[in-house]
Design a protein that fits this description.
By secondary structure, the protein is α/β, with parallel strands linked by helices. Helix content is about 30%, strand content about 30%. The protein has a domain of about 190 residues: UDP-N-acetylmuramoyl-L-alanine:D-glutamate ligase (3-Layer(aba) Sandwich). The protein is built from eight helices and 13 strands. Strands 5-4-1-8-9-10-11-12-13 form a nine-stranded mixed β-sheet, with helices on both faces. Strands 3-2-6-7 form a four-stranded mixed β-sheet. Helix 1 crosses helix 7 and helix 7 packs antiparallel against helix 8. The chain is globular, with a radius of gyration of 18 Å.
Length: about 290
Amino acid sequence: MLGIVLCCIGDLVEDVVVWPTAPPRRGTDTAARIFRRRGGSAANVAVIAAQAGGRSRFVGQVGDDGLGTQLINELESLGVDAAVSRHGITGSIVVLIEPDGERTMLPDRAAAIELRSVPEEALIDIAWLHVPGYSLIAEPIGSTTRQVIARARDRNIPLSVDASSTGAVKDFGLDDFQELVTSLRPQILFCNLEEAALLGVAPGSAMPGVGLTVIKAGPDPVLLVDQSGSTREVSVPPVTNVADTTGAGDAFAAGFLVATMEGADPIAATKAANRLAATVLSRPGAGGR
């Protein structure tokens, strides 16, 4: 993918990943293993895309603090072009992991949502723009992201959006989010089964304005729903030792987009995405090792 740049705009934060040894007991102690990792959906996609052989750029904001410097240095060491503003306090997300690997997130995005402008040079050489839903539902980053999308559209740069979170969509307003995604006309919308159900996307029923909706369903087949509602299924190879699902959706998006930008059709891109997503399921957090 030499010369082709995937640009991701959004969060770069610290994930504090908590693996309790038992279900948390209210009002007392529960022993746990705790891992500190680089996180943020947009940053995860940029890093995993770079590790998969693509060229990627991350656009966002961290605090003017030591943690922000550490996170930027890590991005760059992993091959990501980091176009990062510095102001405020770097955000953190506490991620609680259940025994089956499911995660519950408690975010304090802090500086990440304060992104107010993106310089023109950050958009040079972009061939694809990827936007997590998190980048659309808070201010001022939401307005900034929509401005970047408009500039990308003027250049005929394709767009993908990840629904990201049912809770975040509900807090923003379901009707408002649906209307926003429709107006953005993304080539690809990524979501899981719960997000798809919330947005009203299902086999035979597509969201207006969306070229292709990619619905992830854990171990069950991925559903590819095109503009007409026509649906194809792509099976998911079995994965053992699922310990932590944090970042699996970001890895899937990275694999799908890198393959698509290299010319793969949606079926082949989904297979590439499944392979890449499987690589993060046995380790703590998307930035785990």
